[in-house]
């Protein structure tokens, strides 16, 4: 198996990160597409990668992006954690990278995203709040938090 490396995202990684998000939207029946594929690429290029601590996972030395995480460092807010092929340990590796940056983390995920909710529960995140869909997608979501053990 080709080793996975986690490194700081570069501006050129925006298209690869956006492709993972776009593919996830397309294969997730409950997730509405509210932005075009091109708008998602533009968003990651102009707003996510330059303004947040972003990490990418790659298979091989110069491999394509197989997962990524974006973190608003001061807030300890994970805004994005996506993997091209969930269930292969890449999300865990990216989460470990975020944990080196903060003693506490928080994130929002959709209630319907049961796989993500199970993953975060296994990783020690606790549910602290739910909404009825106060987001762009108008889908119920849940706030999860993690704190480093004392």
From TrEMBL:
| GO MF annotation: an example | acyltransferase activity, transferring groups other than amino-acyl groups
UniProt keyword annotations, A-Z: Acyltransferase, Transferase
Q: Which residues cross the membrane?
A: none
Has keyword Repeat?
no
- So which domain of life are we looking at? Bacteria
Q: Which residues form the N-acetyltransferase domain?
A: 4-149
The protein's name is L-amino acid N-acyltransferase YncA
- State the organism named in the record: Roseivivax lentus
What taxonomic ancestry is recorded?
A: Bacteria, Pseudomonadati, Pseudomonadota, Alphaproteobacteria, Rhodobacterales
């Amino acid at each position: 198996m080709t080793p996975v490396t986690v490194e700081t995202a570069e501006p050129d990684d925006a298209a690869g990160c956006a492709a993972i998000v776009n593919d996830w939207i397309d294969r997730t029946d409950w997730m509405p597409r509210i932005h075009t594929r091109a708008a998602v690429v533009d968003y990651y290029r102009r707003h996510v990668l330059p303004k947040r601590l972003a990490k990418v996972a790659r298979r091989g030395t110069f491999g394509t992006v197989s997962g990524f995480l974006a973190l608003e460092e001061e807030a300890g807010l994970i805004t994005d954690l996506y993997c091209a092929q969930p269930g292969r340990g890449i999300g865990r590796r990216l989460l470990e990278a975020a944990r080196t940056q903060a003693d506490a983390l928080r994130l929002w995920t959709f209630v319907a995203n049961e796989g993500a909710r199970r993953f975060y529960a296994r990783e020690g995140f606790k549910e602290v709040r739910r909404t009825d869909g106060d987001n762009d997608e108008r889908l119920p979501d849940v706030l999860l938090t993690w704190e480093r053990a004392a």
